[in-house]
Automatic annotation (TrEMBL):
<protein>
    <submittedName>
        <fullName>Uncharacterized protein</fullName>
    </submittedName>
</protein>
<keyword id="KW-0547">Nucleotide-binding</keyword>
<feature type="region of interest" description="Disordered">
    <location>
        <begin position="569"/>
        <end position="626"/>
    </location>
</feature>
<comment type="similarity">
    <text>Belongs to the heat shock protein 70 family.</text>
</comment>
<dbReference type="InterPro" id="IPR029048">
    <property type="entry name" value="HSP70_C_sf"/>
</dbReference>
<feature type="compositionally biased region" description="Polar residues">
    <location>
        <begin position="318"/>
        <end position="349"/>
    </location>
</feature>
<dbReference type="InterPro" id="IPR029047">
    <property type="entry name" value="HSP70_peptide-bd_sf"/>
</dbReference>
<dbReference type="GO" id="GO:0005829">
    <property type="term" value="C:cytosol"/>
</dbReference>
<feature type="region of interest" description="Disordered">
    <location>
        <begin position="307"/>
        <end position="356"/>
    </location>
</feature>
<dbReference type="InterPro" id="IPR043129">
    <property type="entry name" value="ATPase_NBD"/>
</dbReference>
<dbReference type="Pfam" id="PF00012">
    <property type="entry name" value="HSP70"/>
</dbReference>
<dbReference type="GO" id="GO:0005634">
    <property type="term" value="C:nucleus"/>
</dbReference>
<dbReference type="GO" id="GO:0140662">
    <property type="term" value="F:ATP-dependent protein folding chaperone"/>
</dbReference>
<feature type="compositionally biased region" description="Low complexity">
    <location>
        <begin position="597"/>
        <end position="611"/>
    </location>
</feature>
<feature type="compositionally biased region" description="Polar residues">
    <location>
        <begin position="579"/>
        <end position="596"/>
    </location>
</feature>
<keyword id="KW-0067">ATP-binding</keyword>
<dbReference type="InterPro" id="IPR013126">
    <property type="entry name" value="Hsp_70_fam"/>
</dbReference>
Amino acid sequence: MKVLATTCDAFLGGRDFDERLFNKFASEFQQQYKLKGSLSSKATIRLLQECEKLKKSMSANSSELPINVESLAEDRDLANKMKRTDFEELCSDLLERFQMLFTKCLDVAKLKSGDVHSVELIGGCSRIPMIKNVVASVFKQEGKTSLNADEAVARGCAFQAAICSPAFKVKDFTVVEQCLYPIIIQFDQEEGSEQCMQTEEIDGTLTTQGKNMCIEVFPFLHPIPSSRQIVLLRHGVFTLEARYANKDSLPNQNIVIGTFRIGDASQVFTEPRKIKLKMRMNTHGIFNISQAQLVEEYEKEVEVNVSEDNPVVDGPPNSKQEVTTASNGDTDSQNPPVDSNQTEMQDSTSPKKKTVMKKKKFTKYHDLSIEVSNMQFTTKQLNEFCEIGANLIQQDKLERERVNSKNAVEEYVYEMRSKLQGPLNPFASSAESESLLQLLDMTEEWLYGDGESLKRHVYVEKLAELRSKGDPIVHRANEHLNRPLAVDNFNRSLVRIRKVLDSIAAGEPTYDHLTQAQVNQLEDTIVQYETWLNQQMVQQNPRPQTSDPVVKVTDIVSQQQAMESVCHPIINTPKPPTASHTNNTPDLNSQNSGQSNDVNNPNTNCNPGTNHSKKGADDEQNMDLD
């Protein structure tokens, strides 16, 4: 897509229509109630919102429409009306500016209204009927609304972002834009220099002659993206300044694009040297000096083949002569041999070649450093901002941790106070309960007083102090709640092992493979751990709930696991294989091998009775194995 023309007015849009309505209604409201001064910020925003709603309503309705705002100022209500015709008369000068803008666009594109195929309207302001009328009067056709007026620009931005992103693959779509704001470069004049730029053109390089220090590198409506090159004659390091040429056409008053320092301080030349600069403007209108090179020209002697009859010293050898010589050589090699006199005559007439040294000009390009200082952030500034951002993130993290620690203290205070008066009351003595409740009350007052905004470690220490008083009570309650289940599991394990001992004593074949030593070990283990459990429970049962337990639930569970680790391997000992199983297997193998030998032997007696007897023996052996 190629853009033929672009015109704009940075100070004209739908906001101006809203302001016209606002100014009219605000002035009438103040005159009606004789109010002094302007409206407040809140009242201004409310009235602007109602004006925008009225503007949209008048776009769809030509009749008189009301506007009402309650309690706009000093408890006064605004109530007014307006017709579309009055609105168009109020904004007549804005319509003239729109018409001038459209006409200028046609003039810049060098087109007539009949050359335009279609006009597409986008933007919320394009829905106003008087804007549509202006478009129809200038372009001699009605504006189309096939695109979404509110989302067209946003979708184009999303498509351009997808083109720039490596994560999306889109079709190639090239846009040839135009430079709306001409750009010039300015540089200082060097003393004793006859010219500031090279006068000859090299591949379309922009050149100028004399001592002009401002050059327009990208004129108005120049197609972009594009690159331009200039060649300067400088003695060493120099600075360029890029700026916009026309200050009045800019939406702001900042005309400086940036400064570019070319070269190193150590590079100083006795005479002017050529510096080649490559400037580029991308599709988005961003200017940059992409490359700076030092042009070094030198002469070097090279060998050149020339003919003695037609020596060429100042120019390259004649290509025609080279081709002719090559064709003559090929002809001599292909023709049949001739007599020696003819050969000597040809040798004497053919031109002889010789090599001479000739000076040729060569050019080298050395890249120069470019130090950019523009309105964009430099790499150093970006790194500093990233560091500041990381510090802010770290501060936010510390603040969250501090707030969480403070909330943990507050949560513990409320939770512990509630539990002390409920389920934890039987497990705390009166002195412990009174002391802990007093500490909780003091902590609550401290949180909403001196401890409102302290560092995180202070809240961590305070929570640890509270837990040192409250955790023993919670521990007693948990032990009292979980101890019966742990003791019950321990007794069940004892009962299971005793049943195994009873089966062994009854002579059941399931455990007849266990040795007497293993049985004695089972009995001793049961007696040992059962005695330990009974002793612990005898000491624990008479103790009050407000005292610490003699035996913990974890101790009971660990003793049960220790007992089972000794008894279970003995109980689960597998039986050894029986002797009948080990003897029958080799006999069967030997008989099978004998049968295979008989089958392979041609002298074997094939008696049916013998075969039936062998088959019966095989069946008996198979039954024994089963």
